[in-house]
Amino acid sequence: KVMDQLFGVHQLEKHLANHFGIARCVISAGDSDRQEKVVKNFGESLNESLDLLLPEGKNIIAVMGGTTMAQVAECLTNLESDKRHNLFVPARGGIGEALTVQANSVSAMMAMRSNGEHRALYVPEQLSSDTYRSLMKEPSILEVLNLISQANCVIHSIGRALHMAARRKMSEKEILMLKQANAVAESFGYFFDEAGKVVYKVPRIGLQLKDLQTVPLILAIAGGKSKAKAINAYMQNAPKQTWLLTDEAAANEILKGE
Ligand code: G3H
Questions:
Q1: Average pLDDT over the chain, rounded to whole?
Q2: What is the ipTM of this complex?
Q3: How far are the Cα atoms of 12, 108, 184 from residue 256, in angstroms, in the given order?
Q4: Measured distance CA(150)–CA(170) in Å, rounded
Q5: Which residue among 63, 67, 167 has the greatest number of ligand 1 atoms within 8 angstroms of its CB, and so is best to mutate?
């Protein structure tokens, strides 16, 4: 019975990876919308995947924020060795989340749990363009931006467009625009329609979507039946080297239409 279930999940993983044309899917049993422990399983899968994939030498790992990222960060264990050293950085400047789920906090937590290092990127949300320009000349900010541009691993989640827009208190005008553009997914502060086309971008410094193409390791973590549409949309055009860590509920919902 257990072997049948394992075989079933393994088939589902292959099927979903083929569906998106990506490197690999890792599927946890259950539905993260309804079972807290499924997110813990994402964390364990992430830890194992990083241990397997991160090469020896110095790694720079750029991470995004969100509640999924904040929860999986807690699950990391030692990823350092004599030969492997990891530095965590936030992938982009603040995109309007509560402190505990901001990329800076996730990066600090991941570094703490895995015995790595981290650097924060302190850029306030609302800036005049003059202040912005002078901040961009600040050596401490330039140093972190430079690290982000050299990241060899990116870890991020995927959210539902309108849910994310409301949570980040985007303006009514922006929300109306997202609705008119049929935005269904959000990741990295970019919004996507069902075909995976970018329909809006929150302007922020740090990693841009086009930069992802040349990052060797990318892990996307998102699950739950409620996120199926968002995951399906974002993954259409995701870089092919992406590993998707998700759950059975999302995978079955995505493949239902086939
Ligand atoms: O960009 C995606 C969001 O960060 C996902 O947020 O993990 O809280 O659903 P969430």
A1: 94
A2: 0.97
A3: 12, 38, 18
A4: 30
A5: 67
